[in-house]
Amino acid sequence: MSLSRRDFIKNTAALTAASYIGMSLPFVAGEASATDVASWHRGTCRLCGTGCRVQLGINSKGTPVAMRGEPKSRTNFGYLCMKGMMFYKIMNHPDRLKMPLYREKKTDKFREISWDKALDIAAQKFAESKQKYGPNSTAYYGSGQCLTEETYLFQKIMRAALQTNNVEGNPRLCMASAVGGYLTSFGADEPIGGYANIEKSSCMFLIGSNMAEAHPVIFRRVMRHKMNNKDKVKIINADPRISATSRIADMHMQFKPGTDLAMLNAMAYTIIDEKLHDEQFIQDYAVFRQGKKVQVDMDTYWQSLQDYTPEKAAAICGGNITAQMIREAARMFAKSDGTMTFWCMGINQRKRGVWANNLIHNLHILTGQLCKEGADSFSLTGQPNACGGVREGGGLCHILPGHRLVAKEKLRNQVEDAWGIPRGRIAPKPGAHTIKMFQQVNSADIKAIWINCTSPAQSLPNVDLYRKGMAREDVFIVTSDIFPTKTTELSNLVLPTAFHFEKTGVYGCTERRSQITPRAVVSPGEARPETWIATEWCARMAKYLNDPVVLQTVKPFLGKEMYVEQPEAIWDEYTQKLTKHRDNDLRGATYKVLKQMADGVQWPAATESYALTGGTVMKFVKGSDPMATSESKDDKPFQFYGPAHADRKLWVWVRPQAGADEEPDAEWPMYLSTGRIIDHWHTTSMTGRIPELMRANPYSFVEINPKDALKHGIKPNDMVEISSRRGKVTMPAKVMEGPIEGMVFAYWHDMHEDRMINKVVKDSFDPGSKEPEFKICACRIKRVSGPKALKPFVV
Amino acid sequence: MPIGGFVVVLDLSVSDEVLKQFSQFPQIDVHGVNEEGSAVVVIDTETSDEMEQLTRQLQKIDGVLSLGVTYFHAEDEIEKIESGEIKPSFSFGRKGEKSENCS
Ligand code: SF4
Q: Which residues on neighbouring strands pair with residue A602, listed in sequence order?
C-alpha cells in the first residue's frame, strides 16, 4: 500500500469520526474518498436490537472492505460498537457453509448434495411426517435474527401448508415476558416511544440491563445525556450485579436476585404514600386489576401494597437496599419531568417475568410518566429483528402476523382471507412454545423440525436434556445457517444461507422501527436466501401432499428473482394485507420508501407520504400518532387503542413478590445468573470467528464476589467448577465487586463443552410468557485448580 | 493493516493529561477535541491484534470515558483471507468432512 493511499484512508477515518461530533477538519471529504472503496451500501447492523445503521464499503471487485456508521440515522447517529463495526469480516470467512450437506443418520458424516436433492429431501420428510403423524409432528424454530420476510414466510408455510401452529423462535428465550407485560399493562405490544426520549428525559431507571455491554450504542446516548446534564439528569441502576452500566449511575440498588418485585411494589407504595401519583392521569386512563377478569379499585390496590412498605421490602431485598433508598428512588422517578425506564433480560428471563414487567409499567402509569417527552417504559430487545420479524410477523406459536392471536377465530379468518386459503385452514389451537417444542422433540412427538438461523443446542436452558432429543435418529432436523454450530452437529440436513447484505430484507428494531438492508454482496458458494429456500421447499411439498392449498401458500412468490423481487413480494403481502388497520400498520413502509430512508420507519405508518417523515415517534398520542386520531373514542389527548384491552385503559396490576423457581438451599447454596459481554454475540458462531473480538474474550469466565471467593479459597483466574442439579461446567474465575455476595455470574457465549453454562441453567419458565428463567437458579462452586491455559473454541 | 476512526469521550478535567498519554503512541493521531470532551482519534496499526490491544489499553487510561468506533478499514486483511494467504486464527470448520458429491 502506498503511503498516500494509506493517508487517504486515515483521513477518511478521521473525517467520519469528526462528522459525528460536528467537528471540521482541515482536509476535505473528496480527498479522503480516494480509497479503494468503490461504493458504500446502507443497511442495518446484523447484531443487537439497537438497530444501528451502517454503511458497508465495497471495493471494485465486490468485496466488502470497510464499515462506517450512518450519520443520518436517528438510532445511532453514526456510532457503532466494535462488534457492529466488524461483523462484515465474517462474510469471507473460510468456515462459511457453501453447499447443502446431508446425512441420513446423525452418526454419519455429512456429504455435499445439490439444492435440488436437498429441497426434495426436506419436502419429503415434512410431508411424510404430516401424513403419518399429523400436522403437529412438524415444527419450525426460527430466530430474532431472521429478516421479517423470512419469519413471515416460514410461519405462513407452517400454518397454511402444514396446518400446524408449531412456529417458535429464540425471541421466546429473551423477550416473551416483555410482550406479555406490554399486552397486559398497555393492551398493545412494544414501547410507546423511542430512543428520541433519551435526550429529553431527566431520570433514567435502568433495571435488569447491562446496557453498556449489551446495547452499547444506546448506552452511549444515555451516558452522553447524563454527561451533558450532570446535575439535572439522574440515573438509577437496579441490579444484583454491579456492571459496566453502573458507572454512570447516581444510585445503584443492589438486591438479592429475585426480590425486585418487592422493591418495585415498594416504590409504588412510596409514590402513593407520598402522594406523588398523577391523579388526573390515573382517573383518565387507568384501571386496577387483580386478575384478567377482576377489576379492583385503587384502595384495594393500595391495601395490596401494605406488604411492601419500604421497610418490609428492604428486609426482603437485602443487599444494599434500605427503606430510605427505595423512597429516594421512587421520588426521583415520580418527580422528574420525564422518566424513562430501560430493562432487558434481567427482568424478562424470569419465572415471573411478566409480573416484573407489569410492576415497572405500574410505576409509569401511577406517575403519568408516559406519552410525554422524555417519559417511557422501554423494554430493550436483544436481537435485531425479534420485534419486527417475530413479534410483528407472527413468529411465535400463539400469534399470527399483525399482532393477532391464533386463538381468536375472527383473527384467524382475517389471515386466511388475506392468504386466499379456505377458512378453517389455520389450526385453532396455539402450537407448542419453545420449551414444550423441545420436550416434544425429546419424546419424538415432533418428527421433523426446521431450525433457522439459531442454535438451540447451545442456547436452550438445561441444554443437555434437549440435546438428547435432538440427537434422536427418529427426529429429522433441518438447519439453515451460515456457519457450522452446535445445532448443525445434531442435524440431518444443513442448508447454507446468504448472510446479511447478501440478500434483501427488513429488520425491525427495539423502537418499532423497520429498516431495510438491500443486497450488496454476492454470497459464497451456493448459499441462498432463506425466502428462496422456503418457497422452493413448500412448492415441492405440494407435490408430496397432493394438496392445492400447499402450493397456493407460496404461489405469489414462486419463480420470482430471489434477491430483491421475491422478498419484496413477501414484504408487500405482509404489510399491505396483514398489517392494514392493525396497530403495527406498515403499509406506508414499502421497499421504495425504506430504501430512501437513512433510518427506516416507525409504525404505525399507513401511507407512504407519512412513512417518509419517519413514522410515529410516540404511539397513542394525538398529534404524533395518526391512529390516535383515527381510532379516537373521546376528546382525550391519549388513545390506548391496542388490540388487547377492549376498555382502552392502562391496567395497574396487583402482583405479589415472587422469587425464583429454584432458590438456593443447603445443598446448592448460591445463585447463578448468566449474561453477555460486549465483544460477543450470543453463541459466538459469528463473533467467535472475528479474531479481534475472540482475542478480547476468548472464553467464558465466572464473576465471583471477593467475599465468596475468600470463603471458597478461590483466587483470580483459578479454575472453578459451577454445578447444579442439571450439570456442571468449569471456567476461570474473575474475582470482583460485581455480583452481590452469594451470587455468581457467568457468560453464556462459549461453545466449549467444558464451559457451556446452559448445561447448568434451569429450564423452568414463566407460566404466562413461557420464557425460561435464565437469570436465576441455584448452584454451588468449588475451586478445581490454579489458572490453566485454555483454548478458545468454536465449532 | 487496519485503520480505525474513533470518537473518544474524555473527562474534560483531565483531558490534557490523557492527550499527553495518547501522544506517546505513534499509531495514534488525535485530530482535535470538542468542547464536550469528544476527541477525534485515528489508529493505524500493523495488525488487528495490535489495534485491539491498543484500544483496550486506551480504555484503561483514567479520564477515558468511552471509545466509540466510527470507521473501520481492513481491506488488506480481507483480501488475504479471501486469497487464502492468511487463515483467521479462530477457524474450526468441518475440515475433512467433505466427501463425494452425491447429487
Ligand atoms: S450497538 Fe448493537 S446494533 Fe449497534 S453496532 Fe453494536 S451490535 Fe450493532
A: A513, A615
Report whether residue A84 contacts ligand 1, using a CB cutoff of 6 Å: yes
One fold for A176-380 and A670-785: no
Residue B45 falls inside a structural domain: yes
Distance A688 CA to ligand 1 centre (A): 16
Report the CATH number that the domain containing residue B55 is assigned in CATH: 3.30.70
Q: What is the pLDDT of residues A718-742, one digit of tens each?
A: 999 999 999 999 999 999 999 999 9
> In this structure, is residue B77 part of a structural domain?
no
- The CA A456 to ligand 1 mean position distance, Å, reads 23
Residue B93 reports pLDDT greater than 50: no
In whole angstroms, how far apart are CA A484 and each of A83, A114, A795? 20, 18, 6
Structural domain count, chain B: 1
Residue B52 lies in a domain: yes
- Point out the ligand 1 atom lying closest to the alpha carbon of residue A384: 3
Question: Is A176-380 in CATH node 3.30.450.20?
Answer: no
Does the distance separating the beta carbons of A694 and B7 come in below 8 Å?
Answer: no
Domain A101-173+385-577 grouped into CATH 1.10.10.10:
no
CB contact under 8 A, B78 and A95: no
- CB contacts, 8 Å: A16 with chain B: 5, 70-71
Q: Judge whether A312 and A246 are in contact, CB under 8 Å.
A: no
The interface predicted TM-score of the complex, written ipTM, equals 0.83
Task: List C-alpha distances in Å: A682 to A351, A460, A517.
Answer: 21, 12, 22
Cell of A400: 399470527
Summarised one tens digit per residue, pLDDT across range A103-136 is 999 999 999 999 999 999 999 999 999 999 999 9
**Any ligand 1 atom below 6 A from CB of A380:** no
What type of residue sits at position A41? H
CA distances from A679 to A698, A702, B56 (A): 10, 16, 12
**Distance between B82 CA and the closest CA of chain A, angstroms:** 6
The pLDDT mean for chain B works out to 76
Residue A73 has pLDDT above 80, yes or no: yes
What secondary structure does DSSP assign to A636-675, as a single string? -SB----TT-TT--EEEE-------SS---SSS-EEEEEE
Q: Which DSSP category does A109 fall into?
A: P
Output the pTM of the full model: 0.90
DSSP notation for A151-204: HHHHHHIIIIIS----EEETHHHHTHHHHHHHHHHHSSSS-SS-GGGGGG-SEE
Would you call B92 and A794 a contact, using CB atoms and an 8 Å cutoff?
A: yes
Residue A588 contacts B where some CB pair is shorter than 8 Å: no
pLDDT at A281: 98
pLDDT of B94 strictly over 50: no
Domain ranges of chain A: 39-90, 101-173+385-577, 176-380, 670-785
Ligand 1 near A45 CB (within 6 A): yes
Span A670-785 CATH architecture? Beta Barrel (2.40)
Q: How far is CA A354 from the centre of its chain?
A: 16
Contact across the interface for A67 and B76, Cβ inside 8 Å: no
CA distance A601 to A579: 14
Output the CATH code of domain A39-90.
Answer: 3.30.200.210
Residue B93 lies in a domain: no
What are the b/e assignments for A277-303, b being 16+ CB within 10 Å? bbeebbeebbbbbeeeeeebebeebee
Choose among A17, A67, A82: nearest Cβ to B7: A17
Domain range for B2 is 1-7+15-65
Mutate to test the pocket of ligand 1, among A68, A81, A245 (most ligand atoms within 8 A of CB): A81
pLDDT of the residue at A508: 97
- Match 483521513 to its residue by C-alpha cell: A11
Residues 93-132 of A with CB under 8 A from B: 93-95, 102, 109-114, 116-117
Dist. CA A498–CA A692, nearest whole Å: 24
Distance A455 CA to ligand 1 centre (A): 21
